[in-house]
Specification:
about 45% helix, alpha/beta, 8 helices, single chain
Length: about 200
C-alpha cells in the first residue's frame, strides 16, 4: 500500500471513528437519570442465568449486597451456587425442586413458586440489597404459578436505586414493556443437541 493510499485510509478511519464518538458522546450526555433498572433475559438460547450471575460478580466488585432467588431450578447443585455462598454479601436461595418435566406435580410446583416469591418480595423491599436476581421467574409466570401484576407491583414499589434481573424463557409482554433493558438469547448451536452431557463450569 502506497503512502498516499495509507494516508487516505487513515483519514477515512479517523472520520468514521470521530462520527461514531460524537454519536456515543451525545447518548452519554442524554443519559442524565440515575436510578435502579429492571433487566429481562429471555429467549430459548443459553446464557440467561449466566449473564445475570455475572452481574452478581460485578456488583460484589463494588462492595454491594446481592439477593438471588432461583425459581424452578434446584434438583442439582451448581458451581455458581457453591461459589456465591462463600460471600456473606450474597443471599442465595434455591427454591425450586427441578424443572417441571422432572417434578410432575403442579400443585407442589405452585407452592414452591409462591414460597420463592415470598423470599423475593422481602428482597425487593430491602434498600440495602443493590441487585436482586429472580432466576427463571419468567417460567413461573408463563405457567401462571405467579401473577404478572403482583410481580409488576413489587417492581414498581422497590427501593429507587435497586436493580433487578428477571430470567427465563417466554417473558410476558407486560414484563418486557416495563423493563428498562430486554435481551433475547437466540440459539444457534448447543452441545446438548449433539449428545454432549452437561458440563461442570458450563451448565453445572
Amino acid at each position: 500500500m502506497s503512502d498516499k493510499i495509507a494516508a487516505s485510509s487513515n483519514e477515512q478511519h479517523r472520520t468514521r471513528t470521530q462520527r461514531h464518538k460524537e454519536i456515543v458522546d451525545a447518548k452519554i450526555a442524554r443519559a442524565s437519570e440515575n436510578r435502579g433498572v429492571v433487566l429481562v433475559h429471555t429467549g430459548n438460547g443459553k446464557g440467561k442465568s449466566s449473564s445475570a450471575l455475572g452481574m452478581v460478580a460485578r456488583t460484589l466488585g463494588h462492595n454491594m449486597r446481592v439477593g438471588v432467588v432461583q425459581f424452578i431450578k434446584g434438583s442439582s447443585p451448581t458451581g455458581e451456587e457453591a461459589f456465591f455462598r462463600r460471600f456473606p454479601e450474597v443471599e442465595f436461595h434455591v427454591m425450586g425442586e427441578g424443572f417441571t418435566w422432572e417434578t410432575q406435580d403442579k400443585q407442589r410446583d405452585i407452592a414452591k413458586a409462591q414460597a420463592a416469591w415470598d423470599v423475593a418480595c422481602a428482597m425487593l423491599r430491602n434498600p440495602e440489597i443493590a441487585l436482586v436476581v429472580l432466576d427463571e421467574i419468567n417460567i413461573a409466570l408463563k405457567l401462571h404459578y405467579l401473577q404478572i401484576e403482583q410481580v409488576l407491583e413489587a417492581l414498581r414499589n422497590r427501593p429507587p436505586m435497586q436493580h433487578v434481573v428477571l430470567t427465563g424463557r417466554a417473558a410476558p409482554d407486560a414484563l418486557m414493556a416495563y423493563a428498562d433493558t430486554v435481551t433475547e438469547m437466540r440459539p444457534i448451536k448447543h452441545a446438548f443437541d449433539a449428545g454432549i452431557q452437561a458440563q461442570k463450569g458450563i451448565e453445572l
